[in-house]
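Reopening this ticket.

The earlier resolution said the output was attached, but the attachment link was broken on my side. Pasting everything inline this time so it's all in one place.
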Amino acid sequence: MPPERHARGYSRKAPPDGFDDIEKTLLEFANRMKDAETAPHEGKKKNEATWDIFRISHQRSKYIYDLYYETNAISKQLYDWLLKNKYADANLIAKWKKQGYEKLCCMRCIQAKEHNFNTTCICRVPRARLNDESSGIQCTHCGCSGCASCD
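Inline output:
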């Protein structure tokens, strides 16, 4: 879990009802994140060292998104509290609600300034449009092999 912070917008209030039900899963995500942050990165490329961190952050955000939007298992107050306390990426969840971005892996993949020719990432290209030889292509930022919604 993100550390409890008491300055600049983080709430000092206790979490809303229902947090106890998902706290165990959020702790598992926090432990996996700590392991990924402290994992050795020798032998990996510079960008590959952060791929696990991106994946765990995506999984945690998707877990909270599914709880609220797909299964209606948590309340609006708990959902807002989780976003406010940085348990999930609010910008990524906002994109998931838009058509064409349902499988988006990270926000860096759609930022044009991060890529050559001011376009989106290679993982956003549908697999049907890629050559057969390029089927093993991964995003250099997050390691995604394809997050186009039409795949």
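Reporter confirms the inline version is readable. Residues 103-151 form one domain. The chain is about 35% helix and 0% strand.
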